Amino acid sequence: MARSVVLAAAERRVRSPEGYRMEMQGSYSYQLPASAPVGVDLTPGEARLIRSAAGSTGLFSVPIAGIGGSL
Q: What is the C-alpha to C-alpha distance for residues 61 and 53, in angstroms, rounded to an integer?
C-alpha cells in the first residue's frame, strides 16, 4: 500500500517536476485535468492510506535535499 502511494508521488514529480498542469509549444498542447494531483505532496487520500497502513494517526513530511537543490 505505502509503496504504491510513494510511487504515485514519485511519478508526479517525474512527469511534471515544476508542478505544471498545462504546456504549449506551437500547435502542441497538453493539459492535465483540474482534478489530477500535481507535485510531490501527498493528496489527502494518499495521506489517509499511509496512516491506515502504518496504524498511526500522525503523519508529517521531512524536506529532502538532493544534488542541485531541494526535492
A: 16
Q: pTM of the prediction? A: 0.54
CA angle at residue 26 from 25 to 27, to 5 degrees? 110
Dump pLDDT digits (tens) for 28-46. Answer: 998 877 777 777 778 888 8
Q: What CA–CA distance (Å, rounded) separates 46 from 61?
A: 13
CB 12 within 8 A of CB 64: no
What domain range is 11 assigned to? 2-70
**Sign of the four-CA dihedral 63, 65, 66, 70:** positive
Half-sphere exposure of 64 (CA within 13 A, CB side): 7
Number of domains in the chain: 1
